[in-house]
Amino acid sequence: MAEFVGGDDAAGGGRADCDLIVVGGGPVGLAAAIGARQRGLSVVVVEPRSLPLDKACGEGLMPGAMAELARLGVEVDGHTITGIAYRQGLGPRFATHDFEGPSGRGVRRTALSGALVQRALSCGVTFVDAKVTALVQDARGVTVSLGGGSGIRSRWLFGCDGLHSPVRRMAGLEAAPRRRLVPARRRYGLRRHFSVTPWSDRVEVFWARRCEVYVTPVGGATIGVAILGGRGLDFDQVIASIPALAARLDGAEPDSTLQGAGPLRQRVRRHGVGRVLLVGDASGYVDALTGEGLRVGLAQAAGAVAAIAGAAREPVDVNRAYEHAWSRASRGANTLTAGLLALAHSPFRRLVVPISAAFPAVFGAAVERIAR
Ligand SMILES: Cc1cc2nc3c(=O)[nH]c(=O)nc-3n(C[C@H](O)[C@H](O)[C@H](O)COP(=O)(O)OP(=O)(O)OC[C@H]3O[C@@H](n4cnc5c(N)ncnc54)[C@H](O)[C@@H]3O)c2cc1C
How far is the centre of ligand 1, averaged over its atoms, from the C-alpha of 25 (Å)? Predict the structure, then answer.
């Protein structure tokens, strides 16, 4: 990655080094960078971790995410996903829905990151191996500090720096957590891969007593297992508590280290201020329960790029344009996730799978809603 040191102008708020700084080289940041290059903007991605990146994720790319990757010219390996299945114990507590249109794909995070990095490099995106430690904006641009006295100045900045976004904090966009979200209700995620031939082309979601377990086929001989639940999740204990899954994984070799993420719920005051826009998990997050974070994040990235590209052509209120785009990309999914989460934390939790099985049209409509 390039060692990027902005000139005196950069530090002093003068000439911009580029049109757009993307803080964070996760999938949403890289998608935004590629999209901005496709519109002719000069882009610098700042990411402190070595690429390709890994992260705790269920790794199910919904059909809508696949369509957006195709539009960006990104091709990913992995395993076809034809639909979603909800399971609870054995027997009739089983709801399934297969996507009505094109399929999705289970893709290992490192493979997704690698494909996005290759595409970004081929589009002319510049990478800087650093952490953004401070930002200052004025009417004409944003200057970020990268530590060691170096800095970059750009016309626009996207904070794509994940759940615990430093950009969100630096830009004053963080909202206080709701008081009723007591620590016991905070949710976390864990993920690990196993060398097992996938037994299904669907993402299987096992509804356990206090957590949900996602099994995603990500290759011809590999599955990913992600668990969502409260603090103190014990991966092995959870698997052992689901006999149908424990039997499948009995003797299977782990194919990755255990990774975690959380707390998942993150609130924001707005999704942008001035020349700083928040995109992806950084822009607020409800939960991974419905498994469409990447689809939504990629749609937000497209909306953010369109908003700043529009401003290059004619005077537009970029913050307003992005708020509209963010809402279009996220509101429906967030409402569905929040509703399911409320059910998951209610006494009716044990009815989620039986009701989904009893009303396949409702379950199917919900799956189609998160898929696209
Ligand atoms: C357990 C779990 C399961 C999930 N399952 C699914 C699923 O099946 N399907 C799906 O679509 N979504 C799923 N999600 C959601 C999905 O993982 C996220 O929505 C997605 O990773 C968001 O990507 P992002 O690029 O916004 O953030 P990230 O991938 O978190 O990337 C943020 C990047 O910013 C960088 N960064 C942070 N601070 C700085 C700084 N100061 N300077 C520069 N860079 C910085 C970080 O190093 C990181 O690389 C799941 C999430 C969890 C936790």
Answer: 9
Ligand 1, atom 39, residue with closest C-alpha: 161
The answer as to whether 137 is a domain residue is: yes
Residues 6+ apart with CB under 8 A from 1: 47, 51, 127, 128, 129
Distance 321 CA to ligand 1 centre (A): 24
Residue span of the structural domain in which 277 resides: 8-56+108-180+264-347
Residue nearest to atom 29 of ligand 1 (CA): 26
What are the helix (H) ranges across 59-127?
A: 63-71, 109-123
CA of 1 to the centre of ligand 1 (A): 21
Tokens of 130: 């650093």
Domain membership flag for residue 255: no
Q: Kindly calculate the radius of gyration of the chain based on its CA atoms and give it in whole angstroms.
A: 21
pLDDT digits (tens, 9 = 90+) for 181-225: 555 579 999 999 999 999 999 999 999 999 999 999 999 999 999
C-alpha 39: how far from chain center: 23
Q: Is residue 201 part of a domain?
A: no
Nearest-atom index, ligand 1, CA of 285: 19
pLDDT tens digits for 119-136? 999 999 999 999 999 999
Q: Which residue's C-alpha comes closest to atom 18 of ligand 1?
A: 293
